[in-house]
Design goal:
Layout: H1 3-21, E1 24-26, E2 45-50, H2 57-64, H3 67-70, E3 74-79, H4 83-92, E4 97-101, H5 102-110, E5 119-124, E6 130-135, H6 136-140, H7 146-154, E7 162-165, H8 171-182, H9 187-190, E8 192-195, H10 201-206, E9 212-216, H11 219-225, E10 229-234, H12 235-238, E11 245-250, H13 251-256, H14 258-276, H15 279-289, H16 299-306, E12 309-311, E13 317-319, H17 337-349, H18 359-366, H19 369-379, E14 382-384, E15 392-393, E16 399-400, H20 405-410
Parallel strand pairs: 2-3, 2-4, 7-8, 7-9
Antiparallel strand pairs: 1-14, 4-11, 5-11, 6-9, 6-10, 12-13, 15-16
Helix pairs in contact: 2-14, 5-17, 14-19, 15-16, 17-18
Length: 421
């Protein structure tokens, strides 16, 4: 079945399911612009930060395809050097909003990723599309998967192997830790952990500084293309259809600019829908974001995995059923409370939080479902779920639905308490 026919069939199924379950389909005129009179955005120009990763695509395409103008704003993407820079510029107000790591924003809201500041998640930008890359040096030592890595680590002195993620409370740290623990490796006890900005991962592995890393695309594919490393596991193998980057801002910014927040969310939401509408749109997106102003890499490095066409550098190729997705009839974009709560359980598990938080209250404060619903109405024809919780099964067979987060956070054999080293 072609991608377009699959999307059409899936849309009919979801709409029917949503109506049967009591969800609602937001009506709207196809070319309506909700940016007039008292609904006009307070800020005509919106500066939005991004890191050069494939999943910044909805922000870039919202600007390049004119979806921002349709909703009464001029989106100004700002390329940033690291997630720490994104954090600092968001907190200071130098950026109005940003393409951001989901759990980084939760950490900032709780004061464990920098000076505490109330934050807001306007929408999820993508599901899936990250990976854990191991070095070719490990491959020569017989390491090809989690089991063989565990054996090698167990036979070595603690700290022998150096693994990197992109931010201490970020999503890549959480995927890395979860996968390592699932194969019997304690990341804090057994490894040396480093923080490296995404564009610097491949070079650090090339010069021998890293045994492994977890990062977003295109840097895992770049490691394969440059014969530096290979994909050991994708993030969607850890959690199929997991939340990844979000459209983040400060809570005060939303309070001060409610119409701008709605317009920004609507523009990016419309771009996400456009990207997912066809493989041709995905190819066009890959060519656009490959440019020097954005990712500054070859389009071919982006395109394959963006289309779900994977190869791991060990001779295996497959069409991934859970490749990077940006919209999927609104399932991707909705800021599910249970997604935010899951990251809180992992911050608790790894000792980054000193005590159990009020999981639901924190997620409710950050994830602005009311802004998303307004934006979905402005865009039109968006299925918005009635429930704000969803159910998922992770790599170790554990089922997450947000129903008992405190118990879920503590029910792991490998976990950490107290201040991390």
């Amino acid at each position: 079945m072609s991608n377009a026919r699959f999307i059409s069939s899936r849309r009919r199924f979801l709409v029917g399911s949503a109506l049967a379950a009591g969800s609602w389909l937001v009506p709207g005129l196809r070319n309506a612009v909700w940016a007039a009179g008292s609904d006009a955005p307070e800020k005509p120009q919106v500066r939005v930060g991004f890191i050069p990763l494939t999943d910044c695509a909805p922000i870039v395409m919202a600007a390049l395809k004119g979806f921002d103008k349709k909703h009464g704003i001029s989106l100004q993407p700002s390329k940033e050097a690291s997630w720490a820079a994104v954090r600092d510029k968001l907190a200071s107000g130098e950026l109005d909003a940003a393409h951001a790591l989901y759990s980084m924003i939760y950490g900032l809201h709780l004061g464990i990723a920098g000076k505490q500041q109330a934050m807001a998640n306007l929408m999820t930008l993508n599901n899936n599309g990250q990976a854990i890359t191991l070095s070719n040096q490990l491959r020569t030592q017989g390491v090809i998967d989690g089991s063989s890595l565990q054996q090698r680590v167990a036979a070595s002195e603690p700290g022998t192997y150096r693994f990197a993620h992109t931010f201490p409370t970020g999503t890549h740290a959480m995927w890395l830790y979860y996968w390592l623990a699932s194969v019997g490796i304690d990341p804090f006890r057994d490894l040396r952990l480093l923080v490296v900005p995404p564009p610097q991962m491949v070079m650090n592995m090339k010069i021998g500084n890293l045994s492994g890393f977890c990062v977003g695309e295109p840097w895992n594919q770049r490691a394969i293309s440059e014969n530096v490393g290979y994909t050991a596991v994708t993030s969607q193998q850890v959690w199929p259809d997991h939340p990844e980057k979000i459209l983040a801002t400060r809570a005060q910014w939303v309070n001060d600019n409610p119409h701008t927040a709605r317009a920004l969310t609507a523009a990016v939401l419309e771009a996400a829908r456009w990207i997912d509408a066809s493989d041709d749109n995905r190819r066009e997106t890959a060519r656009a974001i490959a440019g020097r102003a954005w990712l500054n890499t070859q389009a071919d490095t982006i395109t394959g995995r963006m289309l779900g066409q994977y190869q791991d550098g060990l001779g295996h190729r497959w069409q991934d059923a859970h490749g990077m997705q940006f919209f999927r009839d609104g399932e991707v974009s909705f800021p599910w409370l249970s997604d935010g709560m899951w990251f809180l359980t992992q911050l608790q598990r790894w000792g980054l939080l000193k005590q159990q938080p009020d999981y639901h209250a924190v997620a409710r404060a950050i994830n602005r479902t009311e802004v998303y619903r307004q934006a979905a109405s402005a865009v039109g024809n968006i299925v918005v779920p009635q429930s704000e919780m969803r159910r998922s099964t992770l790599i170790d067979g554990r089922v997450w639905d947000g129903s008992n987060p405190a118990a879920w956070a503590t029910d792991f054999a490998i976990k950490r308490r107290g201040e991390p080293a």
